[in-house]
Design brief:
CATH architecture: 2-Layer Sandwich
Distance between the termini: 30 Å
Mean pLDDT: 95
Radius of gyration: 15 Å
Oligomer: single chain
Number of strands: 5
CATH class: Alpha Beta
């Protein structure tokens, strides 16, 4: 995403903000977390994707699975993306994009510890209407835009009752 124009960055930010507005669920239980995780895992198998999937509700990991071809590095990416979303309450891709509007990188801010946080796509807050963020859904293993898109696709399916 570093080769994007300012206009492309603004468009990407607007699209992610629209996804956040769209993907407000009525509820999110542990059973919903399992359905979401299993849907992502099923797609990974069907599409031959080497990804790790994580659904964390509050601070409890409710679902975590790693496909063949992943490593402990993917677990580390998941932890860091999840921490970033838990701190800011917005998708991890958006955390990385917003500073780019001003030609900056959040990673260059002195307080941003890359060992603790990752401002790369793939973690999306699970939002419940009238409540706010109750969980995170995270994918690691693809390009960051693809990680993000896969989580959004799964949340759309869950919201539509297809998961």
């Amino acid at each position: 995403m570093t080769d994007m124009t300012r206009h492309e960055i603004a468009d990407a930010i607007a699209a992610i903000e629209a996804e956040m507005d769209e993907l407000q669920l009525e509820r999110f239980t542990n059973d919903d977390a399992h359905r979401l995780g299993l849907l992502l895992l099923t797609w990974a198998k069907e599409r031959d994707l080497a990804i790790t999937v994580d659904v964390t509700r509050g601070t409890q990991t409710v679902f975590h699975a790693a496909m063949e071809g992943t490593s402990a590095d993917n677990d580390d990416w998941i932890r860091r993306k999840t921490r970033a979303v838990q701190r800011f309450g917005i998708p991890s891709l958006l955390i990385g994009l917003r500073p780019q509007l001003n030609g900056k990188r959040i990673e260059d801010d002195p307080w941003f510890d890359e060992r603790r946080y990752a401002a790369h796509g793939g973690c999306f807050p699970v939002l419940v209407r009238g409540v706010g963020m109750v969980a995170t859904a995270t994918v690691s293993g693809l390009a960051q835009e693809d990680d993000h898109a896969l989580v959004v696709e799964a949340l759309r399916a869950l919201a539509a009752g297809e998961a």
